[in-house]
Design the sequence.
């Protein structure tokens, strides 16, 4: 009990010191910003998983299996290291599955999923992005920055089904999956502007294209937010994020093509330190 009281007192003391030393915090001068909230997205996932016999069929996961829109926890942050230098990051994840009766044969990996069989699609997704930024223009009411970073899309997509045997033959389990988790570099621009009545607008764009070794394709990541700074250390915001990822991959864990688009609204609380 005493330990809890001491920890609580220490946290209150840290909060009081932060407030006392930095009453004028806002998104343009805060040392650290942490945005916590929900991400409400719709997706377009198309996957082709090749097998040893050749190219597989392109599968639209959303249309074929009726994967609904979803919401997930999301974390965004910024840390101003010193002067014009800062680090930014994003993290969220989502795992989903859905089942449906196939209206056609599907070649996926080394298996053929026949017409009429009930098949379950599953996907596990984790997105992490970290970038370094240099603020090349800063004034009282706006700042502009350029950055370079790494975008990690850790994805696993698969199909499972049970084919009932006929003529006395045993049932057969079908299961195929592909995984990819390559870190991809990104280049980007970001801007933030102060509006009247303690409102702030932020916009960010990141892009990447590669055609080397086992990868060929690119991604774009566009984001815009508006934040109302209710107090020097707390704000609430709304935003929208549009992400597009298209790659041909030639690896043992995933040999084929992955196209994944998502877009959706964000609602979050913003904490400034």
Sequence:
């Amino acid at each position: 009990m005493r330990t809890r009281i001491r920890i609580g007192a220490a946290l209150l003391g840290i909060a009081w010191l932060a407030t006392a030393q930095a009453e004028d915090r806002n998104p343009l001068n805060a040392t650290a910003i942490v945005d916590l909230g929900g991400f409400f997205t719709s997706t377009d996932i198309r996957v082709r998983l090749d097998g040893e016999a050749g190219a597989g069929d392109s599968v639209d996961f959303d249309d074929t299996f009726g994967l609904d829109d979803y919401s997930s926890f999301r974390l965004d942050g910024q840390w101003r290291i010193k002067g014009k230098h800062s680090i930014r990051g994003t993290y969220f994840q989502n795992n989903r599955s859905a089942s449906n009766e196939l209206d056609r044969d599907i070649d996926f990996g080394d298996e053929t999923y026949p017409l009429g069989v009930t098949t379950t699609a599953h996907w596990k997704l984790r997105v992490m992005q970290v970038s370094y930024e240099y603020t090349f223009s800063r004034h009282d009411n706006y700042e502009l920055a350029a950055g370079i970073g790494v975008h990690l899309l850790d994805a696993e997509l698969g199909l499972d089904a049970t084919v009932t045997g006929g003529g006395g033959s045993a049932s057969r389990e079908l299961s195929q999956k592909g995984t990819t988790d390559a870190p991809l570099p990104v280049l980007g621009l970001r801007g933030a502007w102060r509006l009247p009545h303690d409102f702030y607008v932020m916009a960010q764009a990141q892009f990447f294209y590669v055609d080397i070794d086992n990868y060929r394709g690119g991604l774009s990541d566009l984001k815009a937010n508006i934040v109302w700074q209710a107090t020097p250390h707390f704000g609430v915001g709304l935003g929208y994020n549009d992400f597009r990822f298209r790659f041909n991959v030639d690896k043992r864990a995933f040999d084929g093509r992955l196209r994944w688009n998502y877009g959706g609204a964000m609602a979050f609380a913003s904490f400034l330190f």
Remarks:
- Residues 1-22 have pLDDT under 50 and may be disordered.
- The CA atoms of residues 99 and 120 lie 4 Å apart.
